[in-house]
What we know:
Chain A has 12 helices and no strands. Chain A is mostly helical.
Amino acid sequence: xxxxRPTSAIRKGRTGVGAWTQNPEGVRRNILDVAKAEFVExxxxxxxxxxxxxxxxxxxxxxxxxxxxxxxxxxAVLEDAYAGIRGLERSLDLAALPALDALxxxxxxxxxxxxxxxxxxxxxxxxxxxxxxxLKLSAKIGMLNSSxxxxxxxxxxxxxxxxxxxxxxxxxxxxxxxxALSFYNVSNRASILQVFGHDMAVEAHRTKRRASxxxxxxxxxxx
Amino acid sequence: xxxxRPTSAIRKGRTGVGAWTQNPEGVRRNILDVAKAEFVExxxxxxxxxxxxxxxxxxxxxxxxxxxxxxxxxxAVLEDAYAGIRGLERSLDLAALPALDALxxxxxxxxxxxxxxxxxxxxxxxxxxxxxxxLKLSAKIGMLNSSxxxxxxxxxxxxxxxxxxxxxxxxxxxxxxxxALSFYNVSNRASILQVFGHDMAVEAHRTKRRASxxxxxxxxxxx
DNA sequence: GACAAATTGGACCAGATGGTTACTTTTGTC
DNA sequence: GACAAAAGTAACCATCTGGTCCAATTTGTC
Lengths: 223, 223
């Protein structure tokens, strides 16, 4: 969320004995949080290093000390954001549910994750504006994301075996559908509000939309 | 599309009698085309006025002459892009078709429009990054967009009357679904490619996805 | 031919921007 | 206590950036 003061170290503008504590992780974290907020708000080109430095509990010096340059900082923010989503699907334990319930759960979860993490959505938007150049660059992010597809693939196989899913379904296709329906409300919130006067962040709208998305996915998959 | 030379006027770097012709519309158009390409590629903050000027058949001087400043230029580009989509739905003559066919046609059309106009999609992304601040500002764009919703509303009423649509459907909801499923493939093309190795711009993928989207919408709407 | 609009050319500018340098001090650990 | 890593301070820099100004010429129209 918003940048919090590191638990130790860094009391800006103070020098002398006992003025600060070594806390590399804390400083990194602090910079990362502030930078994320800036990149989310203004995009990669729009974000200002000086501004980030100013909002930080530390200094511009430390940004370059830890992240080399603007691109390095942005990449670190991106990787940090992706780190948050990975493995989350696994915590769902879909295997315990009948395929149809599992699909509904997975869809609802995906919808919620996007709605609850607009920052992540906006970073992905920014990244797409830049043709996913940094995603391409990041070894870290690369492998971790096929896990989501594996979950989907397994679920499809099981649902077909149970006889509750159509057998001509492509896992990639249904994954795209779920992502699209979860992503769009958040990514295009501003233009939807402007054009239709409909704010997707309003609790009632969100709840209704959530149900509708699940319904859409289930109807598509059912035999 | 890409910036074309104006039909008359402007042969860069030439002076003297007969060197150029007055052509306000041509010059405006030329600037607009170049600017659009730049904003689409780099976003609002990332686009460089100097770069735009250089790619233009005319000069930076003329950009400010016609568009006042960067924001003015961007707004003009945005309005121009929206002007392209307006009224297009009306040319479909959905009324001539049974409601189900009309819905399939409208969905396919929306899908195609997005796929064929990635520039438009990217401008909308950029605009959303900026919280649709300029959309808000533009009187021009404001009114024109409710037309799409009217088309949808009429179709819904008719489909329900025909007894082929569910009666508990919200026109806004189905419109969002169609938009989301049309928008996402284009807006997130780069990250989809990166994460799944699946290029939505490949003809075969696009065709398959198109059919799937229509199927999704129809299944959702059918009684 | 007068006059406004269109167009050209290019120098110029102040402030912002990403990034660097140089140097010092403090901390933590062995 | 030695030493490297962590942190701080603050000035500095080259370049870029959006934007302006000046000064002139050409066109089209009435």
